[in-house]
Structure formats: structure tokens, C-alpha cells
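Changelog note: in this version the structure field was regenerated for every chain. One regenerated record is shown below for reference.
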Amino acid sequence: MHLGKSVSKRNYGTASARLALSCALVVLCSLVQAPVAASEVARIGVNRVNLGWLSRDEQKRVLTEIATSGATHVRLSLSRPVDKSIEALEIADRLGLRILLEIQLGNKDFYPEGTRPRSGFNRVWDVHRLSDLDLGRYRAGLRSALQVIDEKGIRLDAVEPGNEINYSAYNGDLLVYRTPGGRTPRTVAEIADRDAFERGLDTYVEVVRITREELAVTEHSRGAAIVSAGLSDVSVGEADRRGMERLDPGEVISLLRARGIDRQIDAYGIHIYPGQKAAAALRRSVTSPLEFCRSGDAGKPCWVTEWGVANTARSCPIDDREREAAVRVVRDAFSRLMEERRLEAAFYYDWDTQASYSVWRCGALSPAGAVAIDPNFPGAPAQ
């Protein structure tokens, strides 16, 4: 999840606008059937996290835009306020969108009273230590949420407990340095508090086990895929500049596998932000981080639960040509990995909240966005 993400809250306050939106939603819900993915393996979707922060009318507006733009899958978050997050899930489900639910482990209800988060020194948000998470509180909170979700008849396609647990922005067992610019760890042996970090990984495997157990007793979501927390692809250079500890996704996957996580999951989650570069280099930036993705008995496939290419233009109409070309190369690389059954899903980040990465621009889906979420993408032309 990219740093600097913010939610823009706008006022769509006229009664006539709300009435028109409600009517459109009713018509759409009556027409939309549960979509069929391009294949039984590939899931192509888009991120719109933290909808729980929006009013119900705003949730309807955003999710209706997503559904009518041709998206079939959406990654949403279960975060505080949980009841508002579930409202968004209900809207998405009624619109026929298939839901990947990211469970935010930073929820303070999962931690003992008085637990203090690790400081981000005002450069990034303060965040709880994964090693402090109370498994009993997590189970109780998840069970309560899943009961409400099930009672509403919502079917979850997949669940992803946690986010970027290999990066200090989302895991307080990894440090944010008081002063940035120095050398940050390259391996787990160099982590400042390695014991706490590894205890956090032990806790995480239990979180995943509990998630599978609680889903198994639901009526509508017992068949949901379990995806491990999408891991950050932040480079060592960027980590040094920011003064924030991180580990390579491949190393963290190895540490989790040694703890038996493969028995609890269906796929590994990972995030990829490859930037814009020449086509060959761009393909390498996509495929190299996915070396540990396997198929069949060789291991677990991957889900890219976040990926994105920036376009800093703010003009309308948007000039999206360069980003569209890059997105086509990324989608082609994903298609090849999907053909090999090493990759099963790719969710673009972000729909409309992150200024550079969002694809909903100037009141419409941008050209790059249309390519990013196309479930029937044929592959990019040779370059």
C-alpha cells in the first residue's frame, strides 16, 4: 500500500443527485449477474481500500463507478469502523463484484489495552508491533465480523490477513529510524530487534490459521481462498532514504514457509510497483520479485494484491499514453505468469484516492485504467 495514500472526501449533497444515484444502483443491481472471470485461474481487479471512512452514498458512488467500468474483482479492507467497512462489502457484493478482503492487522481492537504503537517519528504513521497482537482478540473480532458478513449473504472470494508485514510502515517490529539516510538491514540477521520480528512472524502464522478456521464455519465464504499478507517491494535504496527497515519478499516467504504457512494458505501475496522504464527492464522488474511463485506440487502461486504505475499529470483530459504503454507491458508479463499457473490474481492500486496511481481521473476511467482492469486482456504487442 503506497505511502502518501489519502482519501479525498467530497460533498455530493443534493437530494436529486442522491436520488439519481440510488435509482441507478437499483437498476444496475437488477441487471448485473455474478461476473465470470476470464479463466478459472486469473482474477483481475482493482483496489479501493478504506471505504469504511466514507458515507454510504459515497460508497455506493465509488463502487458503482467500479462495477460499471467493467471491473469484476475488487480488493476492499476490513478496518475501523468495521460496521462501515461491512456496509461497503454488502454494496460490492450486490453489484456482482467479487471481493478480496484485506484484514487490517493495525486495528487497535486486536491488541491488549494500553499497548503502545511504535513511533514513525512524524514521517509515517505510528503502527502496532505484530508481536504484540493478541490472538484471542483477533479471533473474537474476526468471528464477529464474519458473522455479520455471513448474515448479510455476502460471499468473500478471498481473504488476505495483513498487509506489507515485511516493511516498517505496516509492522511495528521493524524500525523507523529517528534520522533517515543511513544503511538499513539487508537480511533478517541485521534487523535491530530480530527476536521481536520473528515472534511477529510466529504470531502471523497463527493469525492465518485462525482466519482459515473462522472462514470454514461460515455459510457463504467457507470456500474463500486464503492469501498471505501482500509483501512490499520497497528497495534497499528507498528504505535507506526513508530510514525504514524492510526485508526482501523472498526472504520473508522462506521464513514463513519454515513456520508451516503453506499448510494454511492458498497463495502468497506480494505488491509490485515497477515504475516506468524500457519494456525489457520493465518486464524484469515485474518477473524478478515473483521468482518464488510456483504451481502445483512445487509450491504456492502468487497473488499480486497491489500493483501500479504512476502518472503525475493532473490535467483534464488526462494524457495517459506513457502509463498505458507501461501498463500493457506489465499486463503482458502477468499474462505469461498466469499461463504458467504461477500467478493467479493481479489487483491494480488504486481506483481514486492516490493522486499519482489512481485510474479514475477527470470523472472517468483512464485509458491505462481500462487496460489495467480488463479481465480479457490479450497480452501486449511485442516491443
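Spot check on this record: The chain is about 35% helix and 10% strand. Strands lie at 43-47, 73-78, 98-103, 156-161, 225-226, 268-272, 302-307, 343-348, 360-361, 364-365.
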